[in-house]
Amino acid sequence: MEKFEYKTLLTDAKGVFGGRVDQYAYQNELNELGSQGWELVSTVAAAQSYGSTRWIISVFKRKIS
User: Fold this and answer.
1) Are the CB atoms for 63 and 4 separated by under 8 Å?
2) CA 5/CA 61 separation, integer angstroms
3) Distance CA 45, CA 39 (A)
4) Where would I find the H helices in 15-55?
């Protein structure tokens, strides 16, 4: 049976009302985790209020050898 470990990345959507993510910094974080063997399996936008995104929650997994 395959075994996995999981990791979450919480990315802050900056701004007074949220909703602004530095796409290049976020992409660099994703690429760094990918180079360590982590596979992105899910991304969820967590709302602050009135539908404004406050955080991006990314879930990764990788096999345990």
Assistant:
1) yes
2) 6
3) 18
4) 23-35
The whole-model pTM stands at: 0.81
- Contacts of residue 7, Cβ cutoff 8 Å, sequence gap at least 6: 33, 38, 59, 60, 61, 62
The answer to whether 39 and 33 have CB atoms below 8 angstroms apart is no
Residues 29-39 pLDDT 10s = 999 999 999 99
Burial (CB < 10 A; 0-12, 13-18, 19+), residue 23, is exposed
- Whether residue 9 contacts residue 55, with contact meaning beta carbons closer than 8 Å, is answered with no
Q: 64 is written with which tokens?
A: 């345990």
* The pair of three-digit structure tokens given for residue 25, joined into one six-digit string: 């910094």
